[in-house]
Design brief:
The structure is a single chain. By secondary structure, the protein is mostly helical. 86% of the residues lie in helices and 0% in strands. α1 runs antiparallel to α2.
Length: 59
């Protein structure tokens, strides 16, 4: 597998994980604001990784 393919696969997995974290954060907003904040923080960190991979994979 080429490095470009590896980056794209990892980016795809992280994007899926990011969407789940954002949805969880939204769902917890009304019942547990602390857990919502934790999920949002994790989503932001995941988005930073996605942006880094986007930078590395641009042609």
């Amino acid at each position: 597998m080429t490095p470009f393919k590896n980056i794209q696969e990892k980016r795809k997995k992280l994007l899926y994980h990011y969407k789940i974290l954002v949805e969880d954060s939204y769902n917890w907003r009304e019942t547990d604001s602390a857990l919502s904040d934790i999920q949002e923080y994790n989503a932001i960190k995941t988005l930073e990784e996605i942006n880094l991979l986007n930078f590395l994979s641009r042609s």
